[in-house]
Amino acid sequence: MVTGIRVITNSNKKEVLSLKVSEQQKGFIEPVSDCLADAETDSRYVPVALYQNGEIIGFAMYGKFGEQIWLDRYLIDERFQGRGLGKYFFRTLVKYLIKLFPNQSIYLSVFEENIVAIQMYMKFGFQFTEELDENGESIMKYSNKGLKMGCKNK
Fold it and tell me: Does 121 participate in catalysis according to the annotation?
């Protein structure tokens, strides 16, 4: 399986915009079009496409806000869910961010009702901070202080 993370450009933007999550996940993440609009108005955001064997299967957006690194958006298209790709690409993204921003913690936010995502984040070492973001989502943090990214349940 050949996978990759690529910046979104005019050549792949249409495909990225066609990505969708399952009906039960829609309340947990904004549509890709909203995410890309955010990135156009705030240059700190970096939207990326997730590829498997030359096909776009997911989307993520990260950014550096002050001294904090945020994995702000993450989704796998509903057509590719249930194959372990969510865990695979989450691990890949976090390793990518660790390489880009060594020795810096990584933050994300999640709705408390999104139990599946929370369980995955915790398996990869993210912990709750007891803080909420401006949308009322719980903030989780991965302390990147020379730790190796792993998953307890591979």
Answer: yes
